[in-house]
Amino acid sequence: MAEAHQAVAFQFTITPEGIDLQLSHQALNQIFLSGVRSWKKRVSRMRNRVIKGVYPASPSSWLFVVIAILATMYMRSDPSMGLIKMIQQHLPLSLHVSLSTQGQTMLSALVFSTLLWLSLILALRFCLKLLLSYHQWMFEQHGRVSNTTKVWVTLLRLLSSRKPLLYSYQTSLPHLPVPPIKDTVSRYLTSARPLLTDPEFERMTKLAGQFEANLGNRLQRYLRLKALWATNYVSDWWEEYIYLRGRGPIMVNSNYYGMSRVPGTVIPLCAAQCERMFNTTRTPGVETDVLQHWQDSEFVAVYHRGRFFRLWVYLAGRLLSPRELEHQIQRILDDPSPPQPGEEKLGALTAGERVPWFQMRERHFSSGINKRSLDCIERAAFFVTLDDEEQGMRGEDPAGNLDRYAKSLLHGKCYDRWFDKSFSIVIYKNGKSGLNAEHSWADAPTVAHLWEYTLATDAFQLGYTEDGHCKGDVDRSLPPPQRLAWDIPSEVQAQASSSLVVAQALADDVDCHVFPFRDFGKGRIKKLRVSPDAFIQIGLQLAYFRDRGGFCLTYEASMTRLFREGRTETVRSCSNESSAFVRALETKEAVDQCRHLFRLASERHQNLYRMAMTGAGIDRHLFCLYVVSKYLGVDSPFLKEVLSEPWRLSTSQTPVQQMELFDLKNHPDFISLGGGFGPVADDGYGVSYIIVGEDMINFHVSSKHSCSETDSHRFGVQISKALQDIMNLLADPKSQTTSKCQQAQPQSKKQL
């Protein structure tokens, strides 16, 4: 095979005269250059560690401190107040013998200067941590900034004047606080009130009171102890028990997708989730999976027509150009070789139950050729699928094709994605693209940030030639992509088939509906002095009430990355205020009353979101208390009931984070469609939305065909109507000709 010859650096033969070495200078040169690149990366990492380690100071500031101390000493003054002489007295005896008195003084001054410099860095970090612990700015009304916040912004900008690296703020971020148990229980009861009848609420109040008075305080003490010891009291347990311990398929149930485009604050966020973006794989276990992360990788794994390839992205220590990558991918597309026995549907093992995948891995992928090929996939920077289908908004049925596009990214054929990889990029036959991401290592905003940057860089910086090729030249000596070899026994093939049956049933049950809402966007919502997210969330409550005839426990994901190693918190969007507004609207109460109730619901939602972001949420605290109770072997009827409540409406906003990369108004064809996920409850909906520019909101709705009470397309219609009705309600009072909420008919799109 061609790749076998390329892999040989030298050959030797035994002759009567001795061993005859036939050195391949080109191969040895590649090895040398690859080593040079590795050492350069080591030096770069070391340099970055030093820079971020001394932030907000700089390495050069050490020299400034040294010069200042020496200059002061030269002027016959002791800035150390006797400490330099004390250091000099405690120098090793060997230095006293080998150095002059002046040399000992200079060395002691250098030691003192270094210690002073390090002390100043610690003091600056402490001050920065105190500043970043201030969150009151989030609760101030728009346009009304307090003097305290103004001073805070000024001080924060002074301490952050140097351009930070990705991880510069990590050690300065505050730790996530443990809320008082009384506050959490009180907030939970408030959130549960609109979902319970009077007798049910009375029973739950009694359970909560008993928990708070007895077991709760005991569990809280353990949790506070963990918060003192650990960097974040939630994240490790959240990763393990919510994600890695699930034994069911991660496809649809956990993984999510992101689509491609259609034909500033000064506050630092925790960057810990970025560390495992590349070279990361989730590996199966019996009771729990494990996230494996490697330091670096020089290749990606590629799947095409049932074959796996290793595609090197570095040559001679340099990253391949886009044109060279295109050339290498074309080689894969042109490769006529058929899949090896069992190779085509091998990826189904990652889509099915976790324990059978673990068993097959232990028996047949722990040594030999299968281990080497599996290592190539798992150690790759990421996974790429060259899909032989066409997807996107195309043809005579763009709306239906958009739904199929979403389903394809969510699960594909259930064997043509490697669902264990941190993320898999999918490139379709017609050039459309997207990705599927594993959820345990990071949350959607981290992957969305990467994907937005990728799409914008591809379109506005790299570009293409007139004939559609990537710009640049090709080094024709590039070795071809390496075809991975397998020896897959019949037992593995049988299990892959069984896993595929499980995964296919799960995939067939998912009902995906993606639609752009173009009647208005955040521009018109903001003119009403309403938070766009609150507007949409209240609209979802109205849509669900109309769709199912009641309210449900609603999950909205909020980030907690203002804290070190923070991930997410839950905003319980179904509140007393939002339910009161929905009932008033549906019972046709007076317009002014409906507007008043909407304003209350909007303010309540914004406050709930801010509390979640600033560590005063409900659900992560209750979750950790539950974990502690399990470790102690005690049962809590209150926690058991709370943790078993179904989230029938699970929602998430995909943030647009890199608006500065291109102008949305002048380049509307490059707008991202966002991404989505499967429903959390069997009888519920999953709703993801992205607020795009000023005039569009894109929705991703999912549910299950097996539930007769849900329908993604029907719910999509209800969402659109709910948003239109709320906008009509909040429009200029002069345009209203009726005193009843529901008597105002939706305006035409032209009017909107």
Automatic annotation (TrEMBL):
Record has Lipid metabolism as a keyword: yes
Pathway(s): Lipid metabolism; fatty acid beta-oxidation
Residue positions of the active site: H439
Segments passing through the bilayer: 54-75
Residues in Carnitine O-palmitoyltransferase N-terminal domain copies: 1-47
EC number: 2.3.1.21
Keywords tagged on the record: Acyltransferase, Fatty acid metabolism, Lipid metabolism, Membrane, Mitochondrion, Transferase, Transmembrane, Transmembrane helix, Transport
Cited Gene3D superfamilies: 6.10.250.1760, Chloramphenicol acetyltransferase-like domain (3.30.559.10), Choline/Carnitine o-acyltransferase (1.10.275.20), Choline/Carnitine o-acyltransferase, domain 2 (3.30.559.70)
One annotated GO molecular function: carnitine O-palmitoyltransferase activity
Topology relative to the membrane: Multi-pass membrane protein
Catalysis: reaction(s): (R)-carnitine + hexadecanoyl-CoA = O-hexadecanoyl-(R)-carnitine + CoA; 4,8-dimethylnonanoyl-CoA + (R)-carnitine = O-4,8-dimethylnonanoyl-(R)-carnitine + CoA
Domain of life assignment: Eukaryota
GO biological process: carnitine metabolic process; fatty acid metabolic process; long-chain fatty acid transport
Cellular localization per UniProt: Mitochondrion outer membrane
Annotated ranges, domain Choline/carnitine acyltransferase: 176-260, 266-719
InterPro entries, per the entry: Carn_acyl_trans, Carn_acyl_trans_N, CAT-like_dom_sf, Cho/carn_acyl_trans, Cho/carn_acyl_trans_2, CPT_N
GO cellular component: mitochondrial outer membrane
Similarity-based family: Belongs to the carnitine/choline acetyltransferase family.
PANTHER family: CARNITINE O-ACYLTRANSFERASE, CARNITINE O-PALMITOYLTRANSFERASE
Protein name: carnitine O-palmitoyltransferase
Protein source organism: Gasterosteus aculeatus aculeatus (three-spined stickleback)
Taxonomic placement: Eukaryota, Metazoa, Chordata, Craniata, Vertebrata
